[in-house]
Amino acid sequence: MGRKLLLGYSPGTVDAALTYALATGKLDTGDLDYEHELGDVETLNVRGLARDLDVSAMSIHAYGRAWEDYVLLPHGISMG
What we know:
The protein is of the alpha/beta class. It has one domain (4-66). Helices cover 34% and strands 18% of the residues. It has three helices and three strands. It has helices at residues 13-23, 41-49, 60-66; strands spanning 4-9, 33-38, 55-56. α2 runs parallel beside α3 (60-66). The mean pLDDT is 90.
């Protein structure tokens, strides 16, 4: 078992499609392990602002308050 990353994202179809291969073990991640946590945007914003998640979906407003600790990825679909 390698390093574990905690991922936070919504249960919607967009995030499900983006994380399918990772969540189902179809993607070779080497020594990285992932724990998936689903939540609504408000919950993910709170968790992201608390820095509880290694990778998280969050609103652009919440990102503006957490940018020092997160990187905005260039390949996202929704923004709000």
